[in-house]
Write a structure and sequence with these properties.
With 400 residues, this protein is an alpha/beta fold. It contains 15 helices and twelve strands. Helix content is 42%, strand content 14%. It binds pyridoxal-5'-phosphate.
Length: 400
């Protein structure tokens, strides 16, 4: 029986009750949650205030025309999408990408039944391992079988699609594949060819590709390819999920979008209209303004890059890690020092650093391997000073 607790609950269960020994002189530093701490764009409060009157009204589930136009323009510019083939009909607002990823699985089940005649008692849902915990909650909600696809160094820590392609029995009973790029926690990025392989598998075996791309704008120097770009004008069977939480440091705004297969989105909207949360209209107005501004996103990347430079400067080659091409997590291999849960406890107890054990973010695969074993996930979300402080504490605790 796999542990059903969330990674954060498991973390609390091992750390609560322990007081860091340096607490009197050093405030604890929490590097667990992927909650950006940089400033959000200064114009946001004013846009919300200007549209506050609309708080009286129930928002339509399909969002405002202005919101959808802003996302559509942003996607076209970001991924060079064909002007004619991609429109507002390919976009839906979400109350943050998390609820979209969760509710998408109900849509995927209905879609697989209505369009592909897949009426399975226990369909398979494919997910990366490690994974974002909402995927598994979604699989549980429709009593599907979650199938964990480990990343390995050979597959750039992403699910190995070549190996998967051989398992036609599994693919034929699959209704959806949650695929994250840039990946949380490793920050690996799928190139265009990988996205195209994935799209081809989805079309051959009749499952939806649910692309989780919420870290797409947090990259070091090269913008990651996106699934819509890889689709080259045919968006059937593909939905991408993104939000302003990471791009614009607006995790609390709860505003994101789903974009892709227009026919799927139309059918899914009917379900969403009964069950999913709408996005308040003043928040959609603020989100539209944020999608029309890139200056704050560039500044955001500059700040993350400066912090990753500090990580490299302070940890050097004395610990095992790679600066990820995207995302804001340091995925640190601590297997030389002990198991990841014990090292997490040691860091908290001895130097007041709170991080997440990698094994809590993954599951044992069918052969009992947990690909998060021996790793720590460290969110580089605090400011530069605190990040430097944290890296010095980490170094001191592990290397003396
Ligand atoms: C991989 C991944 N997907 C989705 C989300 C959900 O983000 P939000 O609901 O804020 O858009 C997160 C948040 O941390 C994440 O790490």
């Amino acid at each position: 029986m796999q542990d059903q607790r969330s990674p954060f609950q498991r973390l609390a269960d091992i750390l609560d009750g322990i007081t860091p020994s340096n607490e009197a002189t050093h405030a604890p530093i929490n590097l667990t949650i992927g909650e950006p701490q940089h400033a959000f764009p200064a114009f946001i409060p004013e846009v919300i205030a200007d549209h506050a009157d609309a708080f009286r009204r129930y928002p339509a589930i399909q969002g405002t025309d202005d919101f959808r136009a802003s996302v559509c323009d942003w996607l076209k510019a970001r991924y060079g999408l064909d002007e004619a083939g991609f429109s507002e009909k390919n976009v839906l607002p979400l109350n943050g990408s998390r609820e979209g990823l969760f509710h998408a699985i109900v849509g995927a089940r209905d879609w697989a039944r209505d369009h592909f005649g897949k009426t399975l008692d226990k369909p398979a849902i494919l997910l990366p391992n490690p994974f974002f915990h909402t995927y598994i909650a979604a699989a549980r909600a429709i009593d599907a079988e979650p199938v964990f696809l480990n990343g390995s160094p050979d597959s750039n820590y992403l699910p190995d699609l070549d190996a998967l392609a051989l398992d036609t029995e599994l693919l034929d009973r699959t209704i959806a594949f949650f695929y994250a790029s840039p990946a949380n926690p490793q920050g690996s990025v799928a190139g265009k060819e990988i996205w195209q392989k994935l799209i081809a598998l989805g079309r051959k075996h009749n499952f939806l590709v649910l692309a989780d791309e919420c870290y797409s704008e947090i990259y070091r120097d090269t913008p990651p390819a996106g699934v819509l770009e890889a689709a080259e004008g045919d968006y059937s069977n593909i939905v991408t999920f993104n939000s302003l939480s990471k791009r614009s440091n607006l995790a609390g705004l709860r505003c994101g979008f789903a974009a892709g297969d227009g026919a799927f989105l139309t059918q899914w909207t009917k379900y969403r209209n009964m069950a999913a949360p709408q996005v308040p209209m003043p928040l959609q107005a603020a989100a539209a303004a944020a999608f029309r501004d890139e200056a704050h996103v560039e500044e955001n990347r500059r700040l993350y890059n400066a912090k990753f430079d500090a990580v490299r400067r302070i940890l050097g080659n004395d610990l095992t890690y790679e600066i990820p091409p995207a995302g804001f997590f340091l995925w640190l291999d601590v297997s030389a020092f002990g198991d990841d849960a014990s090292i997490t406890e040691k860091l908290w107890r001895e130097v007041g650093l709170r991080v997440v054990p990698g094994s809590f973010l993954a599951r044992n695969d069918a052969s009992g391997i947990n690909p998060g074993d021996g790793f720590l996930r460290i969110a580089i979300v605090a400011d530069l000073d605190q990040t430097e402080d944290a890296m010095h504490r980490l170094r001191h605790c592990l290397l003396g």
